[in-house]
Amino acid sequence: MHYGIDVGGTKTEIAIFDRHWQRLDHWREPTPAEDGAALLTLLAAMVAEADRRSGARGTLGLGFPGVIDDRGCLVTANLPGLRDLPLAPALSGRFDRAFVIDNDSRCFIVSETGPGGAAEGATHAFGAILGTGAGGGAIVEGRLLTGAGRFAGEWGHLPLPAAARERYGLPLLDCGCGLEGCLETYIAGPGLVRLHCHFGGESSSAEQWHRALLAHERSARLAHECHLDLLGGALANVVKLLSPQTIVIGGGLSTLDEIVDSLPAALRRHLFAGVDVPMIVRSRFGAASGVRGAAMLGAGLNGERLA
Ligand SMILES: [Zn+2]
Predict the structure, then answer these.
(1) What are the chain's domains?
(2) 281 CA distance to ligand 1 centroid (A)?
């Protein structure tokens, strides 16, 4: 048996998989995001309950939101209770088995290149999650790329090119990471809403922008063209650095055909002549990639053992 846990800012999910990666059981608990000790206790109790339900002692992987820094601490606004707490040592006293931790964006691409995933078997792949933020993770030479500082794949915090900002007259925006002008603030869901407002539209969610686009509103169309140009340029940077054969798109924006179907052409404009645009596919497991990828890391697929 393999267990995967996806710790979110509001809910924490655990899933039990068999050796063929069929999900046998799963459930969720509210996350005590403000209380680190309570969260660690909850995780231990969920694993004990998984042992009871499965009648086994499964391998264990955990995915967390945000970035794990080189002290092993989580950098995220979503789980204030775990701030400045080196995760692996804090967890090792709670579980009676080895485990792997990583961030949810990396769990996503491990899941999507694993058994049954949208890029199953790909040895060079990039996972781009476009939701409230722009997360990412890369598989290179068949292995999950972590990097010396463990923040490899953070494409959302590359800067928007100054030329692109000038072309569209965009403001320089502060990012939650402490930098300014990060791509994430323009290309993730809230960024698309900002672009819509920038071009004179009125929306407070990507769904509202989408409805305006379907209603042929000019501001929504201008925002769409600008967003595709910025997103195409951002993904082209990833292609130039990592040369993936497949890019898997996840997160809320991946459900919109107008974005996903237009991406190959948008990338093409930012790549050298003669360079093929990678295959661009939607995620197969969506939000369930978090538990699945964590479980696969815990089972030793693509991963390294941390604790
Ligand atoms: Zn940033």
Answers:
(1) 2-111+287-298 (3.30.420.40), 121-283 (3.30.420.40)
(2) 25
Strands across the sheet containing 143-144: 143-144, 134-140, 125-130, 246-250, 279-282
| pTM greater than the 0.90 cutoff | yes
Query: Is 60 exceeded by the pLDDT of residue 130?
Result: yes
CA–centroid distance, residue 273 to ligand 1 (Å): 30
Q: Where are the beta strands (DSSP E) in 40-168?
A: 59-64, 67-68, 74-75, 100-103, 125-130, 134-140, 143-144
Residues 6+ apart with CB under 8 A from 199: 218, 219, 220, 222, 223, 226
Tokens of 301: 């697929």
Q: Which protein residues have their CB within 5 A of the ion that is ligand 1?
A: 157, 175, 177, 179, 182
Instruction: pLDDT band for 302, please (50, 70, 90 cuts).
Output: low
Biggest CA-to-CA distance, the chain: 60
In angstroms, what is the span from residue 180 Cα to ligand 1's centroid? 7
Antiparallel, parallel or unpaired: β 2-7 and 134-140: unpaired
Q: What separation in Å is there between the alpha carbon of 266 and the centre of ligand 1?
A: 23
